[in-house]
Amino acid sequence: MNSTIFLDSDGVxxxxxxxxxxxxxxxxxxNVTEALLKLxxxxxxFVITNQSGIGRGYHSENDFIKLNEFMxxxxxxxxxxIQETYYCPHATNHDCECRKxxxxxxxxxxxxxxxxxxxxxxxxxxxxxxxxxxxxxCKTALIKSRFVEFIQTQKFDSLYEAAEYILSYNALLRCRExxxxxxxxxxxx
Length: 189
What we know:
alpha/beta; Rossmann fold
């Protein structure tokens, strides 16, 4: 089974300028490509995003799809492969099953790509991202943003900083597993 990083887009990959749907308004955050390349060496990468601007009528679903294709292609040009983008097009007041913090989109990705959610991470800049990850049994990393300013939990300044933490965390787990294996072997001797 695959291990995965599920990324929110606005505020994690690109600047969150509220309801961005035009290329000229889209800007990657600093060091995003470098962070994604590091993560990609150990994980499959996916985007899961709430796009309530569609449901509110601020822009069309086609506008979002075009912008997402642009983002995916720009990342691909730098060597980053996003496996798939899953999105909820509904407004916040719509009682759907796909809007974060609900887990429908994570579960769909897990089924379609044979993903082990327990060995996967959700990286986001809102508590709905983190709640979705926790609800699905994923590990989580919260990026600092205006949405979580007063929440008392560990936050990362950027996706790059979160990537460093995730990779260090996994290296520590591998060391623990090796030590455990060595201890078991020594007991048998």
